[in-house]
Every structure is written in structure tokens, then in C-alpha cells.
Specification:
By secondary structure, this protein is α/β, with parallel strands linked by helices. It is 29% helix and 21% strand. The chain folds into three domains: 9-143 and 269-338, FAD/NAD(P)-binding domain, CATH 3.50.50; 152-266, FAD/NAD(P)-binding domain; 342-463, 2-Layer Sandwich (Enolase-like, domain 1). Bound molecules: flavin-adenine dinucleotide (FAD) and nicotinamide-adenine-dinucleotide. Keywords: Disulfide bond, FAD, Flavoprotein, Oxidoreductase, Redox-active center.
Length: 498
């Protein structure tokens, strides 16, 4: 360790990764300082997963109210108060921020408000102060990347979208990634007329093609207008109205779209601005993230980095796991590499989407012809009574040679809660035969994953890059219901919520 240093560890950023690392290191007796330029809790608490999840829960009641009558309720016309939801959301953010600040204090961590900047491999400047430690951890997260368009300052990012004074009548959402798609669904459920403009042919490039096509169809059925294969050219302001000029698939000009709100959800970049990395020689990766090894150590021995700033996997559980592994490695004498393998993902879309492991395209790229898929579109109990299609879909991607399940994909109510258990199964190397031998919980959507019909040899349920309509899954009945399962297996009729 370093004689005369102010601390054993200085952390830049009190978000998911920074907080976890600071608390763990303090717990093992280290003198820790955390520097935070914004709110304690970082993106998750103030402008990320937490506020987004609260808005998504709020938006989810719209379909509940609409369905309630079919189940005997006479609820009358439902009213919605955006300001009240904002106030409740803000109160919860403050509660979690206060709890995190208190946890730091109780652990003996020194919290310093301000923007930190490296001034050497073991020194950080905050305002007028220079602090030293033998180990520095950069956990400064990521920030939205606005597209480079004329008039892009008329657009808001997800940060402002989580804090709108009022809901717009119409919104144009730019981007086809997780953020854009989640916000399109949330706004749509709250009654906003939503147009989502994406360069690809369906939302969520990189996800399984059936999941993408299924979600796109379900979003359109709920009234979201998807403008596929289009690129925004410019945003013009006309009073309270924004006009987004577009180029079509061939680069030709297309009809513009207009709305009071334009949300640019066109990606995020690692937040390394003003960090003084050049003074230390810390190497960056191709997209500007801090390059680290499997233990989260940068190219400079004393400087480590975790979370979004490393541009590995931009998810809260990844930042937490990296922080824990960092503390074990740097302070506990137990080198621990982080596995970014088989990480489950859940999106607050309508219907909810969740997956773990490989999508069909990726599996075929890695395993060639030795991949088979099993897909069903179970009808939920709710849609049986309301008559309104849920768009539910379950799919397994399987390595035929070893019968190993490579990917589990779910679209439908409760998808986020379902996927965690299946992530454990995939970590254990579960086979399709083991899935089939496991009895499900009846009647749930998860059960449908355990009663999937055998794959038809050579039949790919998925689609190419241009995503034509998905063929009827093997074993599907003509009306899209899952075919009757073999005897002695419960009928895989999904319940709305188990
Ligand atoms: C809208 C949105 C929704 C999301 N939804 C989900 C979700 O549902 N599930 C999920 O797993 N992930 C979600 N994410 C991603 C998740 O929030 C991030 O992966 C996670 O917060 C990363 O943690 P981190 O510690 O790297 O950074 P952050 O949590 O962003 O923390 C970084 C902190 O560093 C501070 N900082 C920056 N620069 C400095 C500096 N120079 N000095 C001092 N402090 C500094 C910032 O103010 C911030 O508080 C979402 C993100 C967004 C934006
Ligand atoms: N629920 C969750 O777990 C959750 C939710 C949201 C985000 N995230 C995380 O955050 C990460 C970032 O998500 P994201 O949606 O911000 O980014 P992304 O990079 O996944 O998607 C960005 C989208 O914007 C489009 N785009 C980029 N530049 C553009 C331009 N100039 N014009 C038009 N379109 C453009 C891209 O084609 C893409 O569709 C995700 O990979 C995920 O790890 C997680």
C-alpha cells in the first residue's frame, strides 16, 4: 500500500458499481472515499432503471383497467394523473438516494460532492482538493448520445423523458434499441400517439428474430406506429411542434413525422468526459470505453473501472457483479474474473420481453445447422375472456447435437419474473429433455416453455434480416394456439399472472 495516502480506495461515481465497490471495501476495513457529481445512486436510481420501471408499472394499469370489465368489474372511466405519478416517482428516488447516502455514512465511507478528475495514477482532483490513494476506481457510467442531426437539440433524451412536466399528445421516438422501444411502449400505454422511427426492419436488433417480430406486431396492434428502415435527417421546430425529416430505405426523402415531443434514444456512450484520463495514459476501447481486463483493471496498474464506463454490458447487475469482483481481486487477495455470460435481460415493453442466452440468428452463426428451435404462441387466460390478443410467445433455441438449451425467449405477461429461473437452468447446462421432464406451474406462461412441441427437422421458425412474417410454429394449431400436448402433460394455457 501507499505510505501517507489519504485513502485506500477512491471511487469516482456513486452509481450502481461505485456504491457497491465502496461499501464492500469499507466493510473489509478499507478507508474509502466516493466522489459524486450528481445524485447518489447514479443512473439506476435517478434517471435509469428505477424511474423507468415505476413509469412502466404506472402505464401497465391501462391494460388492466381495459381487461377488468371482462372479469366482472364495473370500474367506470379510468382517469390518469401524470403529475401524481411524477411526484410519487420522485419521492421514491429521493427515498432510495437518502438510503444509499445513509449506507455510505454508516459504513464510514467519505462522500465528496463534486466532479472528480484524475491528476495522476494515484491522485484525484475535486474542486481545490487533491486526494490520493493506491487504488482508484472509475465508475462514472454512461450518458445519452444524441444523433448528429441539424436541430437535434429540439429532441430530449431518456433523462428528460423520465421527468416531463406533462405528457405530450404525440411523440416521435428515434431509435430501435431497448431504450427507444421501452419508452415507445410506456408512452403508448399512457395514451400518447407514438411513432417509433428505426433504421432496422424491426425493434431490438441483436435479439431473437421471432421475439422482435412478435413484439413489433404486438406494438402495432396496440397502436404504436413503427417506421421501419428509416433514418432521421433533421428536426425542425415550428412553434410547439417538431417535424422530423426522414430518409427512406433507399436514402430517398420520406414523409416527415410531427409531434410535440421527440425522444432521441439513439444509444449511450461511456462517460469519460473531463476525467483527465490523458494524464494517466489509461487506454480506451474502440467505442471510447475504458479498456479493462477480466478483473476490471485498466492499462494502468492502480486504476480500475467497472460498469457502463467500460462499455462491456450496460446493465445494473453487470455493474454490481464487476464491483464485487473488483473488491475481491484488489483487496481480498482473491482474484475474481467477471463472467458476462448468460446474463438475463428483461425489457419494460408491452407485452413484456425477457430472454437469456442465444437468439436464433446468433446460435446459427455459432452452431451452424446443428440448431433447432421450439416456439409456441400460448393464449393467456386474460385474452380468452377479453378477446384481445396478448401477443405472448415462448421460444427455445437448442443445440441439436448435445440437446443443450442455448436460449430462452419470452414475450408476455410476467416475462421478467419468469426468466431468472431459466437463467439458472442455462447456467447449469440444462438440456431440452430436462426441460421436457420438468413439470410446470399450471396455468402459467412459464409452463409453456416446458411443454414445447418437438422441432420439425430443418424447419427454422425464425426469419432473415428483413423479418418476413413468422411462419406458424411447428405443432401450432391453425388459430395460433399451441397444439394439444402429449397425454399426461398439462395443457400449456398461460395465466395472466401466476
Ligand atoms: C433509462 C434507463 C433505463 C435503464 N433500465 C435498466 C434496467 O431496466 N435494467 C438494468 O439492468 N439496467 C438498466 N439501465 C442501465 C443501468 O442503469 C446501468 O447499466 C447502470 O446504472 C450502470 O451503473 P454504473 O455504476 O456504471 O453507472 P451509473 O449508475 O450511471 O453511475 C455513475 C455515476 O457517476 C457519476 N459521475 C460521472 N462522472 C463523474 C465524475 N467525473 N466525478 C464524480 N462522479 C461522476 C454520475 O453522476 C453517476 O451518479 C438503464 C439505463 C437507463 C439510462
Ligand atoms: N431493461 C433493460 O435491461 C435495459 C433497458 C434499456 C437499456 N438497457 C441497456 O442500455 C443499453 C443501451 O440501450 P440504448 O437503447 O440506449 O442503445 P442501443 O445502442 O441498444 O440502441 C440505439 C438505437 O439507436 C439507433 N441509432 C443510433 N444512432 C442513430 C442515428 N444517428 N439515427 C437514427 N438512429 C440511430 C440504433 O440503430 C439503435 O437502434 C442496452 O444495450 C442495454 O444494455 C437495458
Amino acid at each position: 500500500m501507499m505510505a501517507g495516502a489519504d485513502f485506500d480506495l477512491i471511487v469516482l461515481g456513486a452509481g450502481a458499481g461505485g456504491l457497491r465497490a465502496a461499501l464492500l471495501a469499507a466493510d473489509s476495513g478499507r478507508r474509502v472515499a466516493v466522489i459524486e457529481s450528481g445524485r447518489v445512486g447514479g443512473a439506476r436510481v435517478a434517471r435509469g432503471g428505477l424511474p423507468k420501471a415505476l413509469l412502466a408499472i404506472g402505464a401497465g394499469f391501462a391494460e388492466d383497467f381495459a381487461a377488468a370489465e371482462a372479469f366482472g368489474w364495473q370500474a367506470g372511466a379510468a382517469g390518469f394523473d401524470w403529475a401524481r405519478l411524477m411526484a410519487a416517482k420522485n419521492a421514491e428516488i429521493t427515498r432510495q438516494e437518502t438510503a444509499a447516502t445513509l449506507a455510505l455514512r454508516e459504513a464510514g465511507v467519505t462522500l465528496i460532492e463534486g466532479r472528480g478528475r484524475l491528476s495522476g495514477p494515484r491522485a484525484v482532483v475535486v474542486g481545490e482538493r487533491v486526494l490520493t490513494a493506491p487504488v482508484l476506481l472509475i465508475a462514472t457510467g454512461s450518458r445519452p448520445a444524441l444523433p448528429d442531426l441539424p436541430g437535434c437539440d429540439h429532441a430530449v433524451t431518456t433523462t428528460e423523458a423520465l421527468d416531463l412536466m406533462q405528457l405530450p399528445r404525440r411523440a416521435v421516438v428515434l431509435g430501435g434499441g431497448p431504450h427507444a422501444t421501452e419508452f415507445a411502449c410506456i408512452f403508448n400505454a399512457l395514451g400518447v400517439e407514438v411513432t417509433q422511427v428505426m433504421r432496422a426492419q424491426a425493434p431490438l436488433p441483436g435479439f431473437d428474430p421471432d421475439l422482435r417480430a412478435g413484439l413489433a406486431a404486438a406494438m402495432e396492434a396496440r397502436g404504436v406506429r413503427l417506421v421501419r428502415g428509416h433514418q432521421p435527417l433533421a428536426i425542425e421546430r415550428d412553434g410547439a411542434l417538431n417535424r422530423v425529416l426522414l430518409a427512406g430505405p433507399g436514402g430517398d426523402k420520406a414523409a416527415p413525422v410531427e409531434a410535440e415531443l421527440v425522444l432521441a434514444a439513439t444509444g449511450r456512450v461511456p462517460d469519460t468526459a473531463g476525467l483527465g484520463l490523458e494524464t494517466t495514459g489509461v487506454a480506451l476501447g474502440p467505442r471510447g470505453g475504458i479498456a479493462v481486463d477480466a478483473y476490471s483493471r485498466s492499462s494502468v496498474e492502480s486504476i480500475w473501472a467497472v460498469g457502463d464506463v467500460t462499455d462491456r454490458l450496460r446493465l445494473t447487475p453487470a455493474a454490481l457483479a464487476e464491483a464485487e469482483a473488483f473488491v475481491h481481486t484488489a483487496f481480498d487477495g482473491c482474484p475474481t474474473a467477471v463472467e458476462h455470460h448468460l446474463v438475463p435481460i428483461a425489457l419494460a415493453t408491452t407485452p413484456a420481453l425477457a430472454c437469456v442466452g442465444l437468439g436464433e440468428d446468433e446460435a446459427r452463426r455459432l452452431y451452424g445447422g446443428g440448431v433447432e428451435t421450439h416456439l409456441a404462441r400460448p393464449r393467456t387466460l386474460r385474452e380468452r375472456l377479453t378477446g384481445r390478443e396478448s401477443g405472448a410467445l415462448v421460444k427455445l433455441v437448442v443445440d441439436r447435437d448435445e440437446d443443450r438449451v442455448l436460449g430462452v425467449h419470452v414475450l408476455g405477461p410476467g416475462a421478467a419474473e419468469i426468466i431468472g429461473g431459466f437463467a439458472v437452468a442455462l447456467q447449469c447446462g440444462a438440456t431440452k429433455a430436462q426441460f421436457d421432464a420438468t413439470l410446470g406451474v399450471h396455468p402459467t406462461l412459464a409452463e409453456a416453455l416446458l411443454t414445447l412441441p418437438p422441432a420439425v427437422p430443418g424447419a427454422a421458425s425464425g426469419s432473415g434480416p428483413d423479418l418476413p412474417p413468422v411462419a406458424a410454429p411447428p405443432g401450432a394449431a391453425p388459430d395460433g394456439e399451441t397444439a394439444a400436448p402429449p397425454p399426461a402433460v398439462a395443457e400449456p394455457i398461460a395465466a395472466e399472472r401466476s
